[in-house]
Amino acid sequence: MLFNEYLQNGKKLVEKGIDDYLSELTYPPVIAQGMKYAVLNGGKRLRPILLFMTLDILGSDMEKGLATASAIEMIHSYSLVHDDLPALDNDDYRRGKLTTHKKFGEAQGILIGDALLTHSFYILTQKNNHLPASSIVEIVKLTSDYAGINGMIGGQMVDIESEGKKIDIETLKYMHSHKTGKLLKLPVECACIIASATNKEKETLTKYADLIGLAFQIKDDILDIEGDFESIGKPVGSDLEHDKSTYPSIIGLENSKKLLHETVEEAKNIIIKEFGIEKSSMLIQLAEYIENRNK
Amino acid sequence: MLFNEYLQNGKKLVEKGIDDYLSELTYPPVIAQGMKYAVLNGGKRLRPILLFMTLDILGSDMEKGLATASAIEMIHSYSLVHDDLPALDNDDYRRGKLTTHKKFGEAQGILIGDALLTHSFYILTQKNNHLPASSIVEIVKLTSDYAGINGMIGGQMVDIESEGKKIDIETLKYMHSHKTGKLLKLPVECACIIASATNKEKETLTKYADLIGLAFQIKDDILDIEGDFESIGKPVGSDLEHDKSTYPSIIGLENSKKLLHETVEEAKNIIIKEFGIEKSSMLIQLAEYIENRNK
């Protein structure tokens, strides 16, 4: 299968899954509609696709990861809904559409985010009957760890505290490895649980996820300077406007591009070393996609 | 054991548990401190005590429910943190102390709430090793169901939508049975899972939880009229100020007191019928406590 076709199929699969799961919810309408609005918004579905590709390389069936991929994407979406709130980034647009709180109201935005986060744990436990209970427990444990104070929320808090301050590269790395990185590792590690990966496979795949997580964030910072509104769906230069520390602002634009390229090369190499070039095809192309994307 | 002694012991036990679990968290400091501030604030710990008493009446060890009781109390606390935000109830005080967002800032308040909710699922899976994996999965499923759109968040949304409107008694019942009721049923049903209750025991105990949940809310509405700031820890008449529908505003103060008493009597009777008067002692006194409390 071609890479672009794989991306499209993965996106379709997970969006169908999320739509099915969320269509079970109807009341109160504003929460049910808001949850769908926040998740089914044209996202890249990078986290679900990472989960599917990891299942693939481990020889397991994509469908086995559908509930987990959907739940992780819902957690990603809730974090964006809360990030966009007036008290945080105060963003009116995301991917060219009104943010959830602008569309439904601020109180509603808070509750829609809470509902997405809460319901993701329902999906993990309710829609994973094909997995042993012990695997479901491991997945919930990992998810709540990587999405919480020791993961995504921790990174988000450091991000907020760093606004308007000069921070060093170590703080920047901590921030990104937690704010963005943990939720990119999560689908890879969940896929390892679902497919009963060996420790060595898990170690390699987790390292790969760390590296592409880093690459993803460097690229994000570069796009905030070089991208355009139509492609990235938010105002260019918003990091600068919010006085945020970024890779370009700390190590410079050219060094950031160099670091991005080296990081992607390393990610590709460790996967090839473990799984061979043929089986690694999709994960290689995913790493390159992260380097070359324009949105 | 005397009832008051039981309340104190249960409160101490769960507060020690929560303190231990949250003391594992240190970074970012504002989130770690904020989580403790929001939970360890002198609450009544009604939900944990309900869980302990249900384990007791089923002949199971209180310690077996410690992680679950702590997690449920953290979910209750997160909901209060988000309820108090400016976009929702905009309350500056709770139990006589500054609300979490007033103490730590609004963005921080949102993230502290998110972190409490997320970490509660970590505790349910990480600290329940003494339970079979299948029981942990059931507990997570129930918790995410009762705390989410079909439970607490659903009720909260209807509450917000009802402000400044005349609502009927059915809508009021829906609102409370979801906003408050589900999280009072949750510890009872979790205790039934932990103690492997029979279906009949579970049915009785769930019905009891429904009834005292209703009683709790009627009493809350009455206290908002008849209580005093020092006891209830928030301004008296704040429901009126927010133009909220309450039992007294819909059926009148005297009828509310009558309904409260009848509800508590029914709760006591069904427990006595199932478990006999001796074993029912604590749950009987808990129902009476809810009727007679002044805070």
Q: Care to describe what's here?
A:
The structure is a homodimer of 295-residue chains. With 295 residues, the first copy, chain A, is mostly helical. Chain A has a single domain (3-292), classed as Farnesyl Diphosphate Synthase (Orthogonal Bundle), CATH 1.10.600.10. The first copy, chain A, is 73% helix and 1% strand. Chain A contains 15 helices and 2 strands. In chain A, strands 1-2 form a two-stranded antiparallel sheet. In chain A, β1 (93-94) and β2 (97-98) form a beta hairpin. The first copy, chain A, starts with a helix and ends with a helix.
Characteristic key phrases:
homodimer, 295 residues, mainly alpha, Farnesyl Diphosphate Synthase, two-stranded antiparallel ribbon, 15 helices, globular
